[in-house]
Design brief:
single chain, about 280 residues, alpha+beta, 4-stranded mixed sheet, 8 helices, 8 strands, about 40% helix
Length: about 280
């Protein structure tokens, strides 16, 4: 992998049984206080440093169980290759989905440190969202080399449609005193009368009643409110936090179909985060 081990201790224990050429092998790998150097060359490009960083417990120990099995009658089967492939898969899995391992550091549900979610039109900075940020701040203190970034995704066009209908619903409520969600038939009749049409598509009809500039302004307010409340809470709770909010380009594929969400991205501080 091209990554030198600068210092540390490694212990490897294996118990292997072969019955009728069927291999069953239990492998335990314990790495104690290992420090890795910078990558230079190597046959494989694996996120080894990040994965081992995540797997370290509070005492700096990495304890891995790597069970393998195979049919030795198959000429393509090699014990070394099986163990190596299993190890590679583990490293990739850990680095790609670090939430389970980081959640164990602070004894929480992985979903609590994976994303801060909103619904369209929702900007409330709830107690539960504050709790999630508190967990991230605690994790930042426990794992001092961890870089945490909140990536904001939202399908703006989907929220535009929802916001447009909602604004038309306010016009309906002002005129009739009714809730458009609870009185859909009356709302449709209201839209028909306003645009003078025999049949209507609710979104298209609402777009004719509500100015585009009004919706653009609302969408900006929603996004700013969500971001500002999070940034303000982080800075007021911890003046030393390095947690940042990042907004990817609007064309990011993760925006498509997404409700407003701050996905949590984890890297090591010495690494450069890759933004979409």
């Amino acid at each position: 992998m091209g990554v030198p081990i600068l210092y540390g201790d490694m212990y490897y224990k294996s118990r292997t049984e072969i019955v009728n050429n069927q291999l069953e092998s239990e492998n335990k790998l314990v790495i104690n206080n290992a420090e890795l150097g910078d990558k230079s060359g190597g046959l494989y490009s694996l996120p080894i440093k990040f994965a081992l960083f995540l797997l370290k417990d509070r005492q700096g120990v990495i304890d891995l169980d790597i069970p393998v099995s195979g049919d030795l009658d198959d000429p393509t089967v090699s014990i070394g290759k099986i163990v190596w492939t299993t190890f590679k898969n583990l490293i990739v899995k850990v680095a790609a989905a670090p939430f389970d391992f980081l959640a164990s550091v602070i004894n929480v549900d992985p979903k609590d440190i994976k994303a801060i979610e909103y619904a369209y039109l929702d900007t409330a900075f709830t107690v539960d969202r504050q709790r999630q940020l508190d967990l991230l701040l605690t994790l930042e203190q426990k794992k001092t080399d961890l870089e945490i970034e909140l990536m904001y995704y939202n399908d703006r066009e989907n929220e535009r449609r929802v916001a447009t209908v909602n604004e038309a619903g306010k016009l309906f409520a002002a005129e009739t005193g009714q809730d458009y969600k609870a009185n859909e038939k009356d709302f449709i009749q209201f839209l028909k009368s306003k645009i003078e049409a025999d049949s209507v598509d609710i979104v298209a009809a609402s777009e004719k009643l509500v100015p585009v500039a009004t919706i653009d302004s609302l969408l900006d307010q929603f996004a700013n409110s969500r971001r500002n409340s999070i940034e303000k809470y982080l800075s007021s709770t911890s003046d030393s936090t390095g947690i940042k909010v990042f907004i990817p380009e609007a064309k990011s594929p993760k925006n498509v179909g997404s409700e407003p969400v701050f996905e949590v991205k984890y890297t090591m501080k010495e690494e450069t985060p890759v933004h979409e």
